Amino acid sequence: MNNYIKTTLAACLAIFSSTAAMGQEPAGKEKSTLKNEVKSLTEKPWFQELSSRIKLHGYAQAGYTYSHKNGETTNTFDLKRVLFWAEARITDRWSFLFMHDFSSVVQEYYTDYRITRNNALTVRVGQFKNGLSLENPLSPTSMEAIDVYSEAVTFLTGCGSDPLLGVQYGRDLGLSLFGQTNNGKFRYELDVMNGQGINKKDGNNFKDFIGRIEYRPVQGLNIVATGQIGRGHAVATSLYNPTIQIGQNYKRHRWTAGADYKSKAFNVHGEAMQGWDGPAKSWGAYVTGAVPLARFGSPELGKRLELVASYDFFNFNTDLGMDQHKAIGGLQYWFYKKCRLQVQYVYKSAFIAEGQFVHGANHGIQCQLQVRFN
């Protein structure tokens, strides 16, 4: 797919150039001449070198959601994500990435420079996903749940449910040092970031520091611990943390510990997380997994069809008793490489704050089609 797209883009460029050059030529010029010019361009050594250094990626996730909450029923078709990104390998050590979500905003743009030849140290500068939590750095195309991340990850990493930070898609502007040793068994990451989110300058003079350590003791198992020390700058007021006002700076610390295990028999990952936003403390945990159904039916169909289940708990503010429980169950069918069809039932418990009923339990059915190329 990459080669096809590259050739198409090259052809468009060649056609544009040729059309401009033919501005004064007769309209009856043969089409074969234009084809020969395109072919000549794509066969040039410099063009082939440029093409080999650029990788194109993209995916789209769209579907249908039915929801019943507080006696009200809603249903809608929705387009969740349409992302396209390009990676350019400038040299063997230096690269650049640009990512845009056509359903929202520019999400990532950064450059990497590998300082050591053995991948022990690489520096990254720009806008990218922060390293907090096991789930946040992962692509939505590899996550089992249509909702993607757990409640704890969505709130604590800035993916969108914390009003004080706003919708930041788990990304920020900053600098990162990362690398791996021991044949990939040990990986580390240290991020220094604004703490204000995507496409924004820092709201205060403090930076957020995020550390991440991964250890792979055996094949398929990855143990992850992360932490953050920082200062937030509130962009809105929050039901979860009513003592912090707009424009106020506040303490924002987090820690997480989790593990991910992948095998032919099943995949499962889970994590415990805790955070402090000013005087408020929050914490939660989740476990999510998928099991191929090969042993229960046709082996060929079973490899592509998986049973998905997830449970997570998150207390947005322990002083106010803001417990939230969520359970997911469903199926996903991988019909082509990283392309799949998903159907899931989602349950969220009623939400209560300081003993007061906020909203009732939410029952929903979600369907999603995912198409990806890379």
Uncertain parts: 4-27
Please state roughly what percent of the residues sit in beta strands, choosing from under 5%, 5-15%, 15-25%, 25-35%, 35-45% or over 45%. over 45%
Tally of DSSP helical segments: 5
CATH topology name of the largest domain, in short, is Porin
Helix percent reads 10-25%
Physical arrangement of strands within the biggest beta sheet: 1-2-3-4-5-6-7-8-9-10-11-12-13-14-15-18
**Can you tell me the number of structural domains?**
2
Query: What's the mean pLDDT score?
Result: 88
Oligomer: single chain
Q: What is the makeup of the main sheet?
A: 16 strands, antiparallel, barrel
Helix-strand category: mainly beta
Number of strands: 18
Shape label = globular
- Architecture of the largest domain, according to CATH? Beta Barrel
**CATH superfamily name of the largest domain?**
Porin
Radius of gyration over all CA atoms, rounded = 24 Å
Helix/strand order, N-terminal first: HHHEEEEEHEEEEEEEHEEEEEE
Distance between the termini: 7 Å
Provide the CATH top-level class of the largest domain.
Mainly Beta
